[in-house]
Amino acid sequence: MLISVVCFSAMNLVVKFLGNIPAPELVFFRSVVSFTLSLYFIKRRNLSPFGNNKKWLIARGVFGVTALTTFFYTLQELPLATAITLQYLSPIFTAIFATQLLGEKVKSYQWLFFLISFAGIAMIKGFNEDVDLKFLLLGVMSAVFAGLAYNAIGKVKHTDNPVVVVFYFPLIATPIMGVVSIFYWVQPIGWEWLLLILMGVLTQIAQVYMTKAFQSSAISGLTGMKYLGVVFALGFDFFIFHVAYQPMALLGIGLVIAGVLLNLFFKPRKTKKIKVG
Where is the EamA domain (predicted)? Predict the structure, then answer.
């Protein structure tokens, strides 16, 4: 899990360095790598690439593409730790949408945890001069669509193989972001090509090791490690980008993460474990 966290953190840093490449173009390059690797594993397992529950598979792809594109925008425009903290709101929106889409229940105390996280967002905005409200809202929107994407995955957990579910992200992203990128295309030069390849490779390594970690241990014991990513991001902001956070802004980041972790550890547990990818 630690390898996964380090690779995801390094990927976020790479996106930050590619600040002159538009977010849709970054998503396009990332999806090309994912498309190639996912199709390889689908063919290797003799699966149908288009799956069964196509409505929710397509929804998963559209929601996922929207979430990643807006996340890349915030990575480029906001301090790294702030952008990542906003993305960490996704479990909250996952739980909220699941009440309608998956019939799950939200306990009364969970709403208190949600409130703690949103209070943290208000503190980040109020005590961090580098945060533009427009991009802060864009970061929250990224978490909203990530929550919708996770619910779409839940809708197909009994009908489609996880490899096919993963494949629908690049299947949707590659043509759409390819067309969008035509209008905003910035030709990568020199080392930027290497960074684009590195972005895809780091993402793949991170996803593989995260999956291995969740398959070999209790998820509840590993989930908290994911949030070490904000520690790395704070280090990158301070030592590389010279971002100085006010103490209250740091407290806000802590409140966001605390609210999410409290929700993850105290939410009602299902007796049956479901593998979704």
Answer: 1-124, 136-264
Helices (DSSP H) in the chain: which residue ranges?
A: 2-17, 23-44, 54-77, 80-87, 90-101, 108-127, 133-155, 162-184, 191-216, 219-226, 229-239, 247-266
Q: Which amino acid is at 133?
A: L
User: Per-residue pLDDT tens for 157-183?
Assistant: 788 888 888 888 889 999 999 999 999
More confident: 118 or 1: 118
Q: Residue 132 CB: number of other CB atoms within 10 A? A: 13
Asked if residue 206 lies in contact with residue 96, where contact means CB atoms within 8 angstroms, the answer is no
Domain-wise residue ranges, the chain: 2-266
Report whether 124 contacts 136 (CB < 8 A). Answer: yes
CB 173, CB 31: distance < 8 Å: yes
d(CA 185, CA 192): 14
pTM of this structure: 0.84
Q: What integer pLDDT is reported at residue 214 of this predicted model?
A: 55
**Torsion angle of alpha carbons 102, 175, 189, 39, nearest 10°?**
70
> Is residue 259 within 8 Å of 113, Cβ to Cβ?
yes
C-alpha to C-alpha distance for 216 and 175, rounded to whole angstroms: 35
First to last CA, the chain: 15
Tell me the pLDDT tens digit for each residue of 223-275: 567 778 888 999 999 999 888 888 888 999 999 999 888 887 776 655 444 44
One-letter amino acid at 166 equals: V
Among positive and negative, which fits the CA dihedral 56, 217, 91, 9?
negative
d(CA 40, CA 46): 10
Rounded to whole angstroms, the Cα distance separating 93 from 69 reads: 18
Could you identify the residue written with the tokens 């590195």?
A: 198
